[in-house]
Amino acid sequence: MNKYFLDLGQQPLANNYLSTFGKVQKKYHLKLFFNTKTKIVSISKRIPSEKMFNNTYPYRSSMSQTMKNSFFKLSLEIKRKFNPKKILEIGSNDGALIKNFDKKKVIGIEPCNNLAKITSKNGFVTYNKYWNYKLAQKLKKKHGNIDLIYSANTLTHISNLNDVFRSISHLLSKNGILIIEDPSLLECMKKNSYDQFYNEHIYLFSAISVKNLLNEFNFEIFDIKNLSTHGGSIRYYIKKKGNKNIKIKYNVKKQIKNETKYGLHKFETYKKFSKNVKKSKINLLEILKKIKKNGKKIVGYGATAKAVTILNYCNINNDLIQNFIDITPEKINRYMPGKKIKILKYNKNILKNYDFVFLGAWNFKKEIFNKEKKFIKKGVKFITHIPKPKII
Ligand code: TMP
Questions:
Q1: What is the spatial distance between Cα 14 and Cα 35, in angstroms, rounded to a whole number?
Q2: Strand 27-35 relative to strand 342-345: parallel, antiparallel, unpaired?
Q3: What single DSSP character describes residue 18?
Q4: Pairwise CA distance, residues 240 & 39, whole Å
Q5: For 35, 78, 112, 300, which has the most beta carbons within 10 A of its beta carbon?
Q6: What is the pTM of this model?
Q7: pLDDT tens, residue by residue, 300-337
Q8: Which residues line ligand 1 (CB under 6 A)?
Q9: How far is the CA of 242 from the centre of ligand 1 (A)?
C-alpha cells in the first residue's frame, strides 16, 4: 500500500529551463509516498518520459570534475574486476563513462537526442532510444548477450520498473554483472535533502527496496559501495541468482542493517522527515529574508534540478536570490524553472558582484569551495540548507 507523507507543492519540470520568462509553465503536484510492502519511496504524478527526456535535455554528466573522476575510477574497476567483452550503459548521457572504454566494446542507450548525438559523433555506438523490452530484444538479436550492464541515475527515472528489470534480465548473460548507481534514500533522510525529489526522480532507492525489487527477477545484490556523488549515492553490484561463482559480500547485509536501524522500513520515519522538511523551509526563508533586509545580494551556485524543487517549494523569487550561475551551456541565459531568476554564465570573477552564495549544487561543495578559495578569503559567505539551513 502506498502511504502519503510529504507535499512539495506545485513543481514545474525540473530541467525545463526557459529562455523567456512569462510563458505559463505547466506545474505538477509533487507528493511523496512510501510503499509499506516493497518499501519503495516514489512520487505520485508520473509525467510521460517524452516530456522530460527529449532533444533539449540540459543535464550533462561531464560538467563536473567530480563526476568525471568517479566514472574514470569506475571504468578502471570494471576492467580490472570483470573484464567484460561487451558493456552496455543505460542512460549514457554525454559519454562521461563510456568514453573510458574501447569504442568496440561499449554501447550507449540515450533517449535525449542532443546527448546521444555527442557520443555518436565521437564514434560510440549509441541508440537514441528509451530503455524497454522491445529495445532489449533488438539489441540481443544484433549484439548477443551483454556481460556488463551499467546504469547511473537513470533507472529511478523510469516509471515501469518491472519492464526495466525484465529487459535487463533478457539481455544480460547468465554470469553477467549489472551495476546500478542512484542517490541513497538513507543519505537523503540523514541530510534532509528533500531536493532529491523532483518530477524526474520517480523513485528514491534504498538497499532494502532494491533487494525487494530484484528478488522478483531472480537478481541479487552481491556488493555495495557508498559514494559521495549526487549528495550520497549507492552503487549496487548485482548478479543473477543462478551465478554461484560470486560470493555475496558482508557489506550488503551491513547496509540493510544500517537502513533498518534508521527506520527506512517504517512509515513513521517518513512522517518525521516530512516535519523536518517543513522546518527547513521556514529556516531557509528566515535566513534569506534577513539578508535581503540588510540590502545584500545573493546568487545561487549551480542551477540544479534540486534547486528548482527548493525555489518552488519555498516560493523563493528574485527578490531573495537575484541570479543563479552555471557552467552548462544549455542553462545559461535561461530562467530557473517556475521562477523569474535568470541563470548567468559562470566566470571566475562573477562572485564579486554578490555578498552571499546559495549552494544549489551543494553536492559539489568541496569542488566549489576549492574553486572559489579567493572569494571565501575575501569574505563571501555561503548558504546551504544541508543538513539544516545555515550560513557557512
Ligand atoms: P547536479 O547537482 O544535478 O549534478 O548539477 C550540478 C550543476 O551545477 C550543473 O548544472 C553544473 C553546475 N556546476 C557549476 O556550474 N559549477 C561547478 O563548479 C560545478 C561543480 C557544477
A1: 24
A2: unpaired
A3: B
A4: 22
A5: 300
A6: 0.95
A7: 999 999 999 999 999 999 999 999 999 999 999 999 99
A8: 63-64, 302-306, 326-328, 331, 346, 361, 363-364, 367-368, 371
A9: 41
